[in-house]
Amino acid sequence: MNHSARCGLLGLALALSACSVLESDKVDYKSATKASTLEVPPDLTQLSQESRYVVPGGPVSAAAFEAGKATNKAEAESKTAVAQIADVRIERDGNQRWLVVDRPADKLWDPVRTFWQENGFNLVLDQPELGIMETDWAENRAKIPQDFIRSTIGKVFDSLYSTGERDKFRTRLERNAAGGTEIYITHRGMEEVYASSTKDSTVWQPRKPDPELEAEFLRRLMTKLGVSQEQAKAVAAAPALKASTARLSTVNGTPVVQVSEGFDRAWRRVGLALDRTGFTVEDRNRNEGLYFVRYIAPNPDKKEPGFFGKIFGSSDAAPPLKYRIRVQAEGNISTVSVLNETGAPESSANAQRILKVLVEDLR
Asked: What is the CB neighbour count within 10 angstroms for residue 229?
């Protein structure tokens, strides 16, 4: 059955119901199968199946981490909200949240993997030695209205019902200087929209990351790690602190993003932004403020594939380009810039596109 016919059957039901994903009973994911992997625009497809994250203890050394903590201790205490229960605490900085667990990363990997599987996801990236796992694209079935038609025929013709949205989550585990682990969860979303006013075809396009979805899964993960549901819900709902500002600018003719915060917070936020926007991060060096990324430039002449597109990409795809994302700070102002593979400042159209993607998440 084509999309238009399916939409005709479901249009009335969808118009009569609005669902919130922020309630725990409104999150019910079901991963797509491997045969239906979602294709995303090439400028956001960063070859995640080949991503390489620095092994904890590599360029991000414990000494460097501790030095960064000491330098920014006053700033962290004044600008980061912390709520702790037992050996698990949640920290919040603006709309960003992450967990700090007083356990080694290797003791947390299996519980975190099981957590995603229990929540209806397949993992397409599962690399404990690199500290990163990523789910397949999945549909939140709880957003489908449970009306009379759905309850009557939905169990038989379940494929007729679709939200027109898919979500993917990346989890990153990083060891800290105290021997514990920081856990970050980032969300990416896609939505199906009509390609023209005639509504005879559709395309998939990115939608904004949802910090509240990230918070919901962090809350659930706290429960998985031993915190009661009531306690996890209370600390996850703590009021947000005022987020810093970020804006596009130029320095000596080179495009940059300027963030109104010191290095420690800017470094963390840029890392989360790279996760949320799907970049492949091959390595990182906190001492030098560098993330090493791979980027595929968009091809405006190439027709974008649909949802049920090619799994591993086409053979004529443009080769990825290597860049470095540099974070530098002077006092409470940090500058984010793009360098080429040799470390020279980059001012090309690709650099401008990369910075535009990052600033949208950093704002």
From this structure: 12
Query: What are φ and ψ of residue 303, in 5° steps?
Result: -70, 130
pLDDT single digits (tens) 10-49: 443 333 333 334 455 567 887 655 434 444 433 334 433 3
DSSP assigned state of 141: G
CA distance 265 to 284: 16
Residue 269, Cβ neighbours under 10 Å: how many?
24
Taking the alpha carbons of 159, 161, 165, 171 in that order, is the dihedral positive or negative?
negative
Decide: helix, strand or coil at residue 150: helix
Q: φ, ψ for residue 285 (rounded to 5)?
A: -135, 100
Strand bridging mode 246-251 / 333-339 = unpaired
Tens-place pLDDT, residues 185-217: 999 999 988 888 888 888 888 888 888 899 899
pTM of the model: 0.67
Mean pLDDT value across residues 61-73: 40
Query: Cβ distance 191 to 199 under 8 Å?
Result: no
- Residues paired with residue 210 on neighbouring β-strands, in sequence order: none
What is the reported pLDDT for 131?
84
In angstroms, how far is CA 363 from the centroid of its own chain? 15
Q: What is the percent of the chain with per-residue pLDDT over 90, rounded to a whole number?
A: 33
Distance (Å, whole) CA 202 – CA 225: 41
CA-CA distance, 333 to 147, in Å (whole number)?
Answer: 52
Place of tokens 């906190």: 286
Q: CA-CA distance, 6 to 163, in Å (whole number)?
A: 11
Q: Which residues are paired to 147 by β-bridges?
A: none
**b or e along 99-124 (b: 16 or more beta carbons within 10 Å of the residue's beta carbon)?**
bbbeeebeebbeebeebbeebbbbbb
Pairing between β-strand 333-339 and β-strand 321-330 as defined by DSSP bridges:
antiparallel
Residue spans of beta strands (DSSP E) within 70-113: 81-85, 88-93, 96-101
Task: Output the six-digit token pair for 138.
Answer: 């999945």
CA 214 from chain center: how many Å?
8
Evaluate whether 32 touches 138 at the Cβ level (below 8 Å).
yes
- What are the sequence ranges of the domains in the chain? 3-23+42-362
